[in-house]
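Much of the work behind modern protein science is quiet bookkeeping, done one molecule at a time. The protein below has been through that process, and both of its lines are reproduced in full.


***
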Amino acid sequence: MRIALVMEWSTSARNEIVNSVLTKVAEANGHTVVNYGQYNMEDFRQTYNQNAVFGATLLAADAADFVVTGCGTGEGAMLAFNSMPGVQCGLVIDPADSYLYTQINGGNAMSLPYAKGWGWAAEVNLEYVFEKLFVQEPGGGYPPSAAASEQRNAALLTKLKAVSHTSIEDILAAEDPDIHEMVVNAFGGKRLELFRENCRNADILKAVEAALAK
């Protein structure tokens, strides 16, 4: 599995430690991590709205299989990501959240709080959270007796989002100046270069390049 770490400017001081812990656990389970920042306060400042556009594009372009994101509380990033097509993002605060979200909902993104509740031994909780992400195949269901119902509901939610949301291509091509500015800024800093390296969908790449050329 290819995991994208996508953080915002207000949490950039945590980027190095989050990336280190995530990479340690992911690689131990045979997965890879690409750190898209934000790396520090001098880096191009990303908000959770811009991160949502960027994260959804990563998933649609098959540049990532799963996105780890977040903000101060985790709430704003979770809401922004869930507003995007093809994204199912859960708010994860502790290891139990991580396990139950991946097993019951089988989503493709998680949002973590990087300010609220971040204190002594925060990196230990973070490591346990990521361990529970990989403990078994997502979408298995919990408890096992409810697995079939949960899997059906997760599949129906994916279908519901497909008919209730516009496509990522439409978002990238939006004429609204505020949305266009958000799209352009979402690919600021090193992100465009990293996206090009990892993108596996030529049509999405073309849509991104067209948006940035406007």
